[in-house]
Amino acid sequence: MRLITALAILTGFVAAPSPPGYRILVASESGDIVTELRWDGTALSVAKVVPVGIMPADIDGPHNVAVAPDGSAWYVTIAHGTPYGSLWKMSVGSDALLGRAQVEMFPTTIGLTPDGALAFVANSDFHGDHPRVNVVTVVQTATMTPLTNLPACDMPHGVKVNHAGTRVYVSCMNSDEILEIDRQSLRITRRHKTGEQPQHASGGPPIHGTPAAHDCMPTFVSISPDDHRLYVACNHGNTLQVLDAGSLELVKEIPVGAGAYNVEPSADGSWIIVTNKKAQSVSLVDAQTLTEVAKIPTSKPLPHGVAYAPDGRWAFISQESVGVDPGAVDVIDLTTRARVATIPIPRQPTGITILQTP
Asked: C-alpha dihedral over 79, 264, 131, 211, to 10 degrees?
């Protein structure tokens, strides 16, 4: 054994670390591509680039990506169409198109049920006339059949299904509210105003501890691993709102960076990351104390989405392009709270997710 060790040192041989059993998918909205990245614990590299889109003469606009719970397929929203957008289902590995469902105007995010049976797609209709009522499309994923277009609110953007698979939450940018949808009945059961300051029943001054009156403009909503709390990114308020999922009452409002955009908790419940789209940074929030513990600069000006490594050590941040300057994906080491790697990604990278591999 000593001889083998000595020979290894003399020859400069060092055993390479095993690559992690996952990859990262990133959608590029202005390029009609989805990029698959490798992460070896030190650097990011491109594994392959998958073209998506149906109109060669125009940009179709892939916006968000999500992976089926069983790892067999991945989904991407295509924002533009003739005239509506669509949800595509792609095979993991071959990246073959398995099915396509028509949705509505400018679909953005995708919420999958834990059993993978349903996809809830928020149709944000960025280029339509507002105010108006936009819809959330519910798609049966086995056959890629739209089940219903649920009239929701003005510009729904973020959509998440809770871990129990019983409730779906939608953030509504223009109507400043969070919706709760019952998965069984596919009905909206509750609405919560995010930009409203509660008053005493007697009409007196605002209740102590409530947020100052302002528009939240919630761009995204996420759910804690135990389904007890909702995390809402307030793009106009520059805050993270924490709501009690049972009552939808405000637990705490936490100042973060300007232009809070996406928000994701870690799987172990330790961290909440908020991307600050107007501050070139992400806020790292302690999920137990509900305090911001670090504001980490990103390599590009417009941070967008968040994905966590399955081992909980790394977070991957997508960043949009500015003109001819490409966007990027940054890697944050959650143990050191520092950016440790980056890779340029062309043509407006937005949605990002983890792809488990065998």
From this structure: -170
Q: Could you read off the pLDDT of 113-167 as tens digits, one per residue?
A: 999 999 999 999 887 788 899 999 999 999 999 999 999 999 999 999 999 999 9
Higher pLDDT, 290 or 83: 290
For residue 43, what are the contacts with CB-CB under 8 A and spacing of at least 6?
341, 343
- Mean pLDDT score, 199-203: 39
Phi, psi of 4 (to 5 degrees): -60, -45
**What residues does 308 pair with on adjacent strands?**
315
Q: Nearest-CA neighbor of 89 among 129, 108, 115, 116?
A: 116
Q: Rounded CA gap, 180 and 150, in Å?
A: 12
pLDDT digits (tens, 9 = 90+) for 327-354: 999 999 999 999 999 999 999 999 999 9
Cα–Cα distance measured from residue 336 to residue 183, given in angstroms and rounded to the nearest whole number: 39
131 preceded by a cis bond (ω within 30 of 0): yes
Q: Indicate the pTM of the whole model.
A: 0.89
Q: For the chain, what's the residue count? A: 358
- Whether cis (ω within 30° of 0) applies to the bond prior to 83 is yes
Pick from 137, 142, 100: nearest CA to 117: 142
Residue type, 212: A
